[in-house]
Automatic annotation (TrEMBL):
<feature type="region of interest" description="Disordered">
    <location>
        <begin position="39"/>
        <end position="62"/>
    </location>
</feature>
<dbReference type="GO" id="GO:0034551">
    <property type="term" value="P:mitochondrial respiratory chain complex III assembly"/>
</dbReference>
<keyword id="KW-0472">Membrane</keyword>
<dbReference type="GO" id="GO:0005743">
    <property type="term" value="C:mitochondrial inner membrane"/>
</dbReference>
<comment type="similarity">
    <text>Belongs to the UQCC6 family.</text>
</comment>
<feature type="compositionally biased region" description="Basic and acidic residues">
    <location>
        <begin position="49"/>
        <end position="62"/>
    </location>
</feature>
<dbReference type="Pfam" id="PF14990">
    <property type="entry name" value="DUF4516"/>
</dbReference>
<keyword id="KW-0999">Mitochondrion inner membrane</keyword>
<keyword id="KW-1133">Transmembrane helix</keyword>
<feature type="transmembrane region" description="Helical">
    <location>
        <begin position="16"/>
        <end position="38"/>
    </location>
</feature>
<keyword id="KW-0496">Mitochondrion</keyword>
<keyword id="KW-0812">Transmembrane</keyword>
<protein>
    <submittedName>
        <fullName>Uncharacterized protein</fullName>
    </submittedName>
</protein>
<dbReference type="InterPro" id="IPR027858">
    <property type="entry name" value="BRAWNIN"/>
</dbReference>
C-alpha cells in the first residue's frame, strides 16, 4: 500500500528560471503586439516658456 490516490509518479515542474524566462518573454511579446496595434504617442510635450512665468508669479505672491 505504498501508492496513494492513483499511484502515478509526479511529472516534475519546470525550473524557476525557465518559468521566469517564459513570463518575461510572454509579457514583452504581448506589449509588442499591443503597441503595434494601438501605436501610442510616447513623445514628451515641449516645455512652455509661459509655465515658468506663471510659477514665478505664484511664488512672488506668497
Amino acid at each position: 500500500m505504498d501508492r496513494r490516490f492513483g499511484g502515478k509518479q509526479p511529472t516534475g515542474t519546470p525550473s524557476f528560471a525557465w518559468s521566469c524566462a517564459v513570463v518575461v518573454v510572454s509579457l514583452l511579446s504581448g506589449a509588442s503586439v499591443v503597441h503595434n496595434i494601438y501605436k501610442p504617442d510616447l513623445r514628451l510635450p515641449p516645455p512652455d516658456s509661459n509655465d515658468k512665468g506663471i510659477k514665478q508669479e505664484k511664488v512672488d505672491k506668497i
